[in-house]
Amino acid sequence: MDQKARKSIYFPNLNSIRFIAALLVVIHHIEQFKSVLHIYPNSMANPVINYFGPLGVRLFFVLSGFLITYLLFVEMEVSGTISIKKFYIRRALRIWPLYYLIVLLAFLVIPQFFPGLILPQPEAAHTHPVLWKVFSVSLFVFFLPNFALVFIGIVPFASHLWSIGTEEQFYFIWPVLMKFFKNKFALLLSVILCYLAASFTFSHFENSDINWLRILGRYWQAFPIDNMAIGGVFALIVYSSSDAFRRVKDFIFNRFVQVVTLVVLLACICTAVVLPVEVLNYEFYSILFGILIANLAANDKRILNLEYPVFNYLGKISYGLYMYHPVMIVVSINILQRFNVLNNYLLYPLATLSTILVAGLSYRFFEQQFIRKKKSYSTVISGDNSPNAE
Length: 390
Description:
71% of the residues lie in helices and 2% in strands.
């Protein structure tokens, strides 16, 4: 592709947001694994800690929706169209190699060579081991780990991949919708409202005797595409030059609005606020995340700056942090138990630092080989391939 036809996009601060999101999930899972392994004390009864993981994942979703949608806007501007094929190739190069490596570790390597790390498994894994393995592996291979979470329950070292499956399903439909729907705001609003309408409907069938309705409702909870569409709305606000969106942008970029958003967000997280209408709960947080992301990415008068080299690096390897951390948490627990020194003062640093080490090595020697190939399929150079990313 002609270099002159390309455009480079780099948003400051967003790598740091990625790291914060990953860190929230790591903290949540350290306490969750302690609970699963009956290690006391653990903080899973603490609603704030219990909230960290879900909110960290939603922050990832809003950020993904913001970035992917914005980059598709720019691609349409630069080339006059959206290449769906190239979009799929770019996403595959970034997501698939590490995803399938974790699937391989979870289903073949750890059970075969490290049986001491095995976590409690669903009852079906013991009563129908062959059928369970074939069915569960098939779901993961075809990027349906959120289905796996609903149908077969927890899969040790792989269940956290449900969010990767959700993102891949979002990526599958999003460029198609963005290419063929002219009114982007109507599209984004329709996705959000349709998702919420279905969520309200399914919420009435949580205790239904109709099994397929309960299952569909649980899957729907593991497919929060509206969080990503909310990120897309903020991408449209930042990108659009129309008077209406410019006024909205001026409003959310106002210093007072930034302060209020940050204070409300931190207060709600630290007190584990849940809205009375629970179906709208994560949407409320997603809107606050969206305001924060838009300001950090595109407001020259932002009140917060997270563009520091350490955070920037940790954000670059955040995909690895997210993917490897369950294994490294359990490895760290096993090491500390062996020396009879298991406590939070040692577990948190060991689990976090070992995850950073493994993720850093993975990024340097494994993931980057595929990331570099994305350039050949990119009209818009962004992320790690952007000249401003270093």
